[in-house]
C-alpha cells in the first residue's frame, strides 16, 4: 500500500512539473508571436519610406519659381525635412520641429482603408430601416406602373438621365429623380439603376422577367437583367415642377444656321424661358436656346461650344423684338435634362498592357478626375482601395480588383518606392495643399459631399490633422517624382479652369481618342454628382500663422522638385498666403 502511494505521489509531482513547463512554453510562444506581428506592422508602416526620405524645407530659395516675399523679408529657420530626391538632399530632420509624419502618414493610410471598408459594412446595417421607409414612401407615390420592358444598352429608350444607387435604390427615389428633371417615365433595372425618359420602350417583356429586388426596398421589384420596370410619373410632375432647376448659361453669338445646328425648334408668340425649357425638356435636350420668338433645342457641339460668351447687354430686349442686335445673339439656358452622350461606361474588353495610376494626395480631386476620365473615355476607372460610397454611386471599378487591368487607370494615394514602381505610368494630380487639407478634413468628418462643422474645425483634431497631413502632401509628390517611370503632371486648378484642353491631354496620355462632342458632353456634366452641398463652413481662416509657415515651406520644396525634373512649377496662387 505504501509503495502504491509513493508511485502516485511521484506521478503527481511529474504531472505538476509537466503542466508548469507546458504553461511556460505556451506563454513564451505567445510572446514571440506577438513580437513578430509587431515587427511586421512596423515594417508595413515604413514600407516605401526610410529615414532618409523625409522632406526638406529649403533654407535657400534662390532659383525657386515661387517665392514668398515675407520669407525674404523675415527669414525664419524652419524644420529641415528630408527629401527622397537626389537633387534635393538635406541634413537629417530635426526631431524637435518635425511632425510625426514618418509613422503618421502610413498609419493614416491604414486608417483610410479601414474607414472605407467599415463604411461599406455599416451601409448594410441600416438597410432594413431604409427599406421600411422606402416601402412606406412607395405606398404613397402616385406613379403608374406601365409594365416590364426589354432594355438594350446600345439603343436605350429611357436615356434622358441615368442614376445609380447600388445600396439604397427604391422605386420612389427613381420616380422623384426623374420627375424633378421633367421626365415622364422612370425605369429601374438590376435592382439599383434608374433611367429617365419621355418615350416608353418599344418591346414589352413577361412580367416575371422583372425579378430583381430593389436594393433599398425589400419586397419591391426594380427591373431585372436587361429588363426595365417602367413607371409613368406624369402625376408627380406638377409637385416637382417648383424644384426644377433651369440654369442661365449666358448670351452667345448665334450660329449662322440655327436649324442645322439644333435638331428641334419652336416658334411661339410671347415665348418665355419656361415655355422653351419645357419644350426642350420634353424633347430630351439639355440646352434651350432663345432668339426672339424662336426656341431651339440641342447639345453643345463644335458649331456651338458655349466657350465664347458675349456681353449680356447684346441680348437685352430679346423678348421685345425678334431682331435684337439683328438676330446675331441668343440666350442659352441649361434644362433639367442630363446630357447623356457620354454617360455610357464599361470595363475594358481586353486587359490593358499599360498599368496606369491616377495618383493624388487625398482631397486633391481624384474622384472628380475619375468622373471626367470615365465619361470622356467611356471606360471605368479602378481603385487601390474599396470605397462603398463611390461604388454605390456608379463607380463600378471600385469593386473590381485593382490589378485586374480591366480599368483605364487606377486611383491611388500611395507613395513609396514599392507602391509606385508597380505602375508603368501615372497621372499625378496636384492641388493647392491649403485646399486639399480642407477638402480631406471635410471628407473625413462629413463624407464625400458634406462639410465639417464649426466644432470640428475648432477642435484639437484640426491642428493635429495639419501637422500630420501637410508633410504627406509634399512627400507624396516627391516620391512619385523620384520613382515614377512616366508621369503626366496635372494641376487641379488648371484642370478646373481649362477643362477640355487638360482633359484631352489626359485622355491622350491614356492612349485613347475621343470626339469633340463627347468632350463637350463631359464639360456639360463637369460636376457630376460629387460636388459638395449643404451648409458650407463660414468664411473664416482655419490656418494659424504657424501652419501657414510650415505649409509654405513644403510648397517651395515641391515647386523646386518639379522644376528640377523639367516640369512646370506650382501655380503662383499657392503662396504667399
Automatic annotation (TrEMBL):
Superkingdom of the organism of origin: Eukaryota
**One Pfam match:** WSC
Q: Which GO terms describe its molecular function?
A: sulfotransferase activity
Ranges in a coiled coil:
none
Does this entry carry the keyword Amino-acid biosynthesis?
Answer: no
Boundaries of every WSC domain copy = 142-234, 245-342
Against InterPro entries, the record matches this protein to:
P-loop_NTPase, Sialate-O-sulfotransferase, Sulfotransferase_dom, WSC_carb-bd
Transmembrane residue ranges: none
SUPFAM superfamilies the UniProt entry points to: P-loop containing nucleoside triphosphate hydrolases (SSF52540)
Alphabetized, the UniProt keywords read:
Repeat
Instruction: Family membership, please give it.
Output: Belongs to the WSCD family.
What PANTHER family does this protein's entry cite?
SIALATE:O-SULFOTRANSFERASE 1 (PTHR45964:SF8), WSCD FAMILY MEMBER CG9164 (PTHR45964)
Query: Per its record, how is this protein called by name?
Result: WSCD1 protein
- Phylogenetic lineage: Eukaryota, Metazoa, Chordata, Craniata, Vertebrata
Q: Gene for this protein?
A: Wscd1
